[in-house]
Amino acid sequence: MQTSSVVFNTKPVLAQIHANNCYIESRDSSKCRYFAANFRVQSKKPISWRPQRGRLSRPSHPVLLSSKATRRRYSSQLNELIPQSRLADKCQQVTCFHSSKRKRIGVNRFTSGFFVDKSTFHLPKHKLDNANVRQVDVPHATVGPEEPHAASTTWPDGIMEKEGLDLLDSEVERKEFENFLRFELPSHPKLHRGQLKNGLRYLILPNKVPPNRFEAHMEVHVGSIDEEDDEQGIAHMIEHVAFLGSKKREKLLGTGARSNAYTDFHHTVFHIHSPTSTKDSEGDLLPVVLDALNEIAFHPKFLTSRVEKERRAILSELQMMNTIEYRVDCQLLQHLHSENKLSKRFPIGLEEQIKKWDADKIRKFHERWYFPANATLYIVGDIDDISKMVNHIEAVFGQTGMESEVAAAPTPSAFGAMASFLVPKLSVGLASGLSQERLPNSVEPSKNFRKERHAVRPPVQHNWSLPGSYTDAKLPQIFQHELLQNFAINMFCKIPVNKVRTYGDLRNVLMKRIFLSALHFRINTRYQSSNPPFTSVELDHSDSGREGCTVTTLTVNAEPQNWQNAIKVAVLEVRRLKEFGVTNGELARYLDALLKDSEQLAAMIDNVSSVDNLDFIMESDALGHTVMDQRQGHESLVAVAGTVTLEEVNSVGAEVLEFISDYGKPSAPHPAAIVACVPKKVHIDGIGEADFKIEPEEIVDAIEAGLKEPIEAEPELEIPKELISSEQLQELRLKQNPSFIPVNQEKKTTKLYDEDTGIVQRRLSNGIPVNYKISKSEANSGVMRLIVGGGRAAETAEAKGAVIVGVRTLSEGGRVGNFSREQVELFCVNHLINCSLESTEEFICMEFRFTLRDDGMRAAFQLLHMVLEHSVWLDDAFDRAKQLYLSYYRSIPKSLERSTAHKLMLAMLDGDERFVEPTPNSLQQLTLEQVKDAVMNQFVSDNMEVSIVGDFSEEDIESCILEYLGTVRERRGSERAQKYSPIIFRPYTADLQHQQVFLKDTDERACAYVAGPAPNRWGFTFEGKNLLESVSNVPAFGEHQNFEEQTGRLDITEKELQGKLRAHPLFFAITMGLLQEIVNSRLFTTVRDSLGLTYDVSFELNLFDRLNLGWYVISVTSTPGKVHKAVDACKNVLRGLHSNQISPRELDRARRTLLMRHEAEIKSNAYWLGLMAHLQATSVPRKDISCIKDLISLYEAATIEDVYLAYEHLKIDENSLFSCIGVAGSQAGEAVTASIVEEESVDGLHNVIPVGRGSSTMTRPTT
């Protein structure tokens, strides 16, 4: 499934600040703007059936920034096979009080994303004068074991209402101010730390979200950096063998627990997310979970059979993850850390070594590093009794390692037990005096290793980029590859981590954050010409606990023809900010936004998930930062915010940029590395493919050109306080006379309220239906979604691609009414609004996140009104949109997965272009008028639905609905907007049913997709059948269940529920969801675990709401030698449900998984938006309130027979099933380009999309 998603996000403007970091991150390839400081394009892969299985998709900790924080985890990760929950990003905040893993760096790619929610919850304006310092009473932290007492953080009485540091006239006041900055930040009041006699450290944090569940993570402080030359990959191997070989972990299957593991440079983590108890378990599950972790970490059985099984899996994983994005990230890391082992100890390891190790070799590494004193246990969750928890830990782990333990290392005090061995103890300005790397073959007897651990983690020495350390500059490094499509360059600066422990540390973080937020906005507002010099510019300044350093990265992405200008513009903008600094307006704007955001985090302190809290604590501990809760973080920020001055912000921020702005000067910090990743061939209009040539000296020349270009100070922009004035609103009300009309013509009621769900349904006099729900789950926050029926399915043969290009054009322009794009973006920044816009096959969707303070909801409604009534369509925006999709189309042959999926989709859907990327010829035929009509013809009143969820009052929400939605002009035409040409599956054709794609590459890889028809979510098929009618007439029990067994188990009420399910509109949605879980479990057990044919296999169902069809897809990765067997095995699993019938245990496990997921997400506003979608949509007539109210009971009522009824309607016979196998390698037969017919050259259309966003160098999940 292919969609266009354009995300307008203030987040990069309020960029993530790690402790002492200013993190400006744009995660996707192209920066255009519409309604916020930055927004990015996200285009779906041709087939969106397959999320990354096994990798838990988690929202960031509320004090970790981003909704989709791309964390740079150079690690292996493995999961027990479970369906992944699409967790609502309810805690995606921007704040100053954390460190996060550094983002992935590398070339950008046009990546998949389906209406990804990337918003930030923001706060009301804090009444804090920037020039004043006010007294703030920050509560002291309670003290855990061996943790110092927190110093008082109250502002000294003598320093009140003084305007900045410069105005502290008296020496006494200045000293008091300086003393205040040296005060330690408060520690988390609920975090309990302790240590067992055997050295095992533990941290416990009670947390009620989600209720009745907890996280238990065992972190062993060993990783790939600890491997000897002949052990490269052995830490990852142990992770696999220990985790998947644990019988006690297997006992947790079916309890609703999820388990996972990963390995990175310097630690291995095994973690279990579990309910506190289950209906079937006797008592508390915590001891069972701890016992499983104890066995996994300290008592694994290195059976030869398990070692061989995991060896096959890891070798498959190695090939699967070896994408061009992975190779790019490896290149970047090798050059960034060329002086130490980080450049050559990637966790996945070396193939030739992995093939050799026996169980004894693996066991010896485990004995060397896996002991309690080298591990930390983290437990966060719904815990009421800390003492009881400590007793459980003592009982399970207390005797482990004691029999052979020698004297344990002394326990450090101060910040906490973790800091001394996880955080480099580095002095700024010193490049020596560090813990030396271990010499090869320096392995000592196990007992000596148990005496001490590395005091520095990771134990490597860095060459710092410090002022005055400039030596002969290394020339830029160039990585050139035939699978790269666009130009990308990374300039790195590497310095020691500055731990954030005092108010002065926090103040520096805040000032850097403000400074770099301004830079990000400035650069991206210049992306407005029809042929821009760059596609994206990112500046990332972040700490990395895994690498033991702080890295600043300037990343510039551009089409190859424009690379010199792109570098020049990026350097020029950095110089401009460094020379002239931020303006007073920018300082006030970004400081205010940070305070609002911080206040929102504090308000949501009781709504942060356990896993987010745990991730935050682990990373903060690794970096040596003080761990605060959200309220402490806000109060601490307020305490320092008023002391910030413009001069200091510009001075502190300028230091971050000197390695770029003063490049080449002896006094400047030298770049740690400059790495360009470039294609070997480029497309030139009118000519075709040509060699791309570039030399390191040319890159230096481009940098120096940016240093010589004349610059001027940034002018202040006028920012609108409102988009619709009160006078204009009054005029609109008089003209349109908005009112509510009956929702249901039969009942004649204008307001439907459901007590069970709290959902209110309304309908406006202009025909727009509205649903809303008042929710207190996310304090002072709200979300709103507009769904418009039609989408890409409504595209005509004469205007292929018109909707997807039109949505992008609307976003590229970013103007509404008389307001420029920059004004609209800053309006969003000031009101902390985030908005996304996307087109899918069925709908056009627009989503808003907003704060409930400072009229944030009213501002969001104003923006929606202006988009619907006063959108501006621009020629240059249209050109950019076409350029973007042209480049995306041309990049398909350079991706094995995308080219394989593209070929399959064209075969299965008979070449229907609405489900793939528009071709160059289709793009050339489009006009601005066509794309405008294609989009706006769908924006008619009776074809729209608006849903809102938030912490608002009934009076406020209904006022906004009437004033801003009710005054939208009435336009009818839903029948025309929803009309679409039939979508058909291609009839059986032997040559197209089973295809192959070959891709020339230096390394071997293989993947495959198997797909076929399915009904849609409501039981309709592409053949015109209404399956729900036939299902409701099927007897309650059939051949797949024993009637006596069923009647013995079920009471009358349960039987009635089963009958209700058969007649319910959600029958196929429920049963297909259960079927997906069951098939996925079997695929893992058979194809991956038993046969060893793959590392990654998944079964996904794509069930449409409006279109009368759906499809299933099995995606599998393998090696060229095994991929055909893997495909056959996948088909056999899918077709084998009759011969190997579904067991009650399988169904119960699938049901429990889905219900646990529902329970975990039910408090999320975004989740409720999904539940409410289409409630009043004319194009989805079967959706009603019962689909929300009855959800749990329907899952509980489903039987094995019900699942088989759904299974029977998947077309899995050989004549209906389509497959495509992709093989990459130097000996690949047919060039992949033959599968994508490049149409005649289109003059004037240029590449604008980078190939990749940068893949992490972590190995993939085991499942």
Q: Would you write up a description of this structure?
A:
Residues 357-594, 926-1154 form the Peptidase M16 C-terminal domain. GO terms for molecular function: metal ion binding; metallopeptidase activity. This is Stromal processing peptidase, chloroplastic. Its cofactor is Zn(2+). Pfam families: Peptidase_M16, Peptidase_M16_C. 35% of the residues lie in helices and 15% in strands. The longest helix is centred in the C-terminal third of the chain and has 24 residues, at 1067-1090. The strands form 5 sheets. Strands 3-4-1-23-24-22-25-21-20-19 form a 10-stranded mixed sheet, sandwiched between helices. Strands 5-9-10-8-11-7-6 form a 7-stranded mixed sheet, with helices on both faces. Strands 2-14-15-13-16-12 form a 6-stranded mixed sheet, with helices on both faces. The two termini are 23 Å apart. It has 1263 residues and is an alpha+beta fold. Helix 33 packs across helix 34 and helix 33 (1067-1090) crosses helix 35. The protein has 39 helices and 30 strands. The model is unreliable at 1-163, 405-451, 1039-1050 and 1230-1263 (pLDDT under 50). 60% of the residues are buried.
